[in-house]
Amino acid sequence: MEQSKWVFVTGGARGIGAGLVRMLVKEGYSVAFTYLSSASTAEALAAECHTADTWCRGFQCDMTDHAAVNALAASLCAEYGSPYALINNAGITRDASLFVMDATRWHEVIRNNLDSVYHTSHALLPHLAENGDACIINISSVTGIKGNPGQSNYAATKAAMIGMTKSMAVELGRFNVRVNVIAPGIIETEMTAGLNDQQLKKLRDLVPLKKLGSTEDIARMAVFLLGQGGRYITGQTFVIDGGMTA
Ligand code: NDP
Q1: What distance in angstroms lies between residue 222's CA and the mean position of ligand 1's atoms?
Q2: Is 245 among the domain residues?
Q3: What's the predicted TM-score (pTM) here?
Q4: Is residue 36 part of a domain?
Q5: Measured in angstroms, how far is the CA atom of residue 35 from the centroid of ligand 1?
Q6: Phi (first) and psi of residue 88, to 5 degrees
Q7: Which residue among 19, 34, 125, 192 is least enclosed by CB atoms within 10 Å?
Q8: The domain that contains 75 carries what CATH number?
Q9: Is 226 contained in some domain?
């Protein structure tokens, strides 16, 4: 039987990442995903997503650690061959007004949200290019497009991902590696599950569609970009925000 295409997803144990993993497996892709601290959640997700035709494995790997990312990428490519796609999803926030934002908060966000994208892309590019048909999706945010008070560090990384994506798309077009951004608005995750009705209403009121997005909304766009629908699309940003930036 032909081996299923496999996808490398960073930060796949929870939230949007877990939604991506579930949808990818449903669509017939095998998945290697990384996590940092969510070991038991990662193990349960990998077990849930294993099918007869595909594999799904979680790996503890700090995406800020260049050497660790290189080692994981090399061992996966040795075992499974070149991946079909890379989805850079792992990200953190360390919010504060710039007046009081210390250098630790600034650098932590830059390292986790931006250096990580360089690490995975650099490690996997030769393998993706070798495929002759491959994709990279970078999960940015509407904050990278319109900014948000208290998130100058986060906004800087999410905007940088868009510029990096455009450069990579032009650079990698000749290898038929397509590079795109998905920029989510407010998505229902564990974080929003802890909010009360009043707080949720406040969030919904920011959105023209008057509802929050789901992890499936993001995953569906990713699957579209990886499939035939995305074969002539590169260097673009797809905003999924219920109209927030309209
Ligand atoms: P979560 O906080 O729920 O999950 C983040 C994931 O990233 C976790 O699995 C975490 O691992 C992993 N992670 C963080 N840092 C590292 C690291 N250094 N190495 C490996 N894994 C790491 O986030 P969301 O699902 O909410 O967000 C996912 C992406 O979507 C982020 O890039 C975020 O910026 C973006 N986004 C989210 C929005 C939202 O409304 N939720 C809106 C716009 C953009 P572990 O669990 O092991 O700690």
Answers
A1: 16
A2: no
A3: 0.98
A4: yes
A5: 9
A6: -85, 100
A7: 192
A8: 3.40.50.720
A9: yes
Total of domains in the chain: 1
**Residue of 35, 110, 111, 186 to test ligand 1 pocket, by largest number of atoms within 8 Å of CB:** 35
Quote the ligand 1 centre to 143 CA distance (angstroms): 15
Residue 117 within a domain? yes
Residue nearest to atom 31 of ligand 1 (CA): 91
Domain around 64: 6-239
- Return phi, psi of residue 21, to 5°: -60, -50
Query: Pocket around ligand 1: residues whose beta carbon is below 6 Å from it?
Result: 10-11, 13-17, 34-38, 62-64, 89-92, 112, 116, 139, 141, 184, 186-187, 189-190
Q: Which residue numbers are catalytic?
A: 154
Please give the ipTM for the structure prediction: 0.99
**CA angle in degrees (0–180, nearest 5) for 152-113-155:** 20
Tens-digit pLDDT string for the chain (246 aa): 457 899 999 999 999 999 999 999 999 999 999 999 999 999 999 999 989 999 999 999 999 999 999 999 999 999 999 999 999 999 999 999 999 999 999 999 999 999 999 999 999 999 999 999 999 999 999 999 999 999 999 999 999 999 999 999 999 999 999 999 999 999 999 878 888 999 999 999 999 999 999 999 999 999 999 999 999 999 999 999 999 999
